[in-house]
TrEMBL record:
This is Matrixin family metalloprotease. Residues 35-190 form the Peptidase metallopeptidase domain. It comes from Levilactobacillus lanxiensis. One of its GO terms (molecular function) is metallopeptidase activity. Keywords: Hydrolase, Metal-binding, Metalloprotease, Protease, Signal, Zinc.
């Protein structure tokens, strides 16, 4: 019997490059900013997640990041119940072997390739690099910013060129900005 291929998934890694800057000056948003770009979205706007294999400290970091995205009001992230399979897995790792370990966090995902920025996400896993976050003295709020950035990838957002965006590639200081809300709306409301 021929097995029908029903989907084509591609694994890519979205990387968040660590910033080594010790500057604590205020970051000013550009006067006008483009909506944060996206590469795909989930079919549904209620998306389940689970935190796995991580400490209560990191569970709380992830839960705070989840709350931030839920507040935006475009998607609702809900904790998966019991043995239910979660759409997004949120975890942390003590040792990261990717890209010389210089990543504060990263997100793996699989999606149905639609050949444009409208890919259909089918699963995602975001990981925080504990040793690096500790080594460079990230505060809990900064770790939450990194977690928020990684969930942004898991929801379909790409990197933004704006330093005020949570999706700026190498920043620990920014949280969700207006342009990120608009970018998420664009990804889910079309
Ligand atoms: Zn990133």
């Amino acid at each position: 019997m021929l097995k029908k291929i029903v989907k084509w998934t591609v694994l890519v890694i979205a990387t968040l490059v660590v910033t080594l800057a010790t500057c604590s000056s205020t970051i000013f948003a550009a006067a006008t900013s483009e909506p944060t770009p996206s590469w795909g979205s989930w079919d549904q706007t209620t998306i389940t997640y689970k935190t796995s294999n991580t400490s209560s400290y990191y569970k709380s970091v992830w839960k705070n990041a989840v709350k931030r995205w839920n507040k935006v009001g475009v998607v609702q992230l809900k904790a998966a119940k019991g043995d239910e399979k979660a759409d997004i897995t949120l975890t942390s790792s003590q040792s990261l072997s990717t890209k010389s370990g210089k990543l504060a966090g990263y997100t793996n995902y699989s999606y149905l390739n639609k050949g444009n920025d409208d890919n259909k996400i089918v699963s995602a896993k975001s990981t925080l690099n504990r040793s690096l976050l500790t080594k460079y003295g990230y505060t809990k709020n900064q770790r939450t910013n990194v977690a928020t950035h990684e969930i942004g990838h898991a929801l379909g957002l790409s990197h933004s060129a704006s330093k005020a965006s949570v999706m700026y590639a190498s920043d620990r200081y920014a949280s969700i900005d207006h342009q990120d809300k608009v970018g998420l709306q664009d990804a889910y409301n079309d």
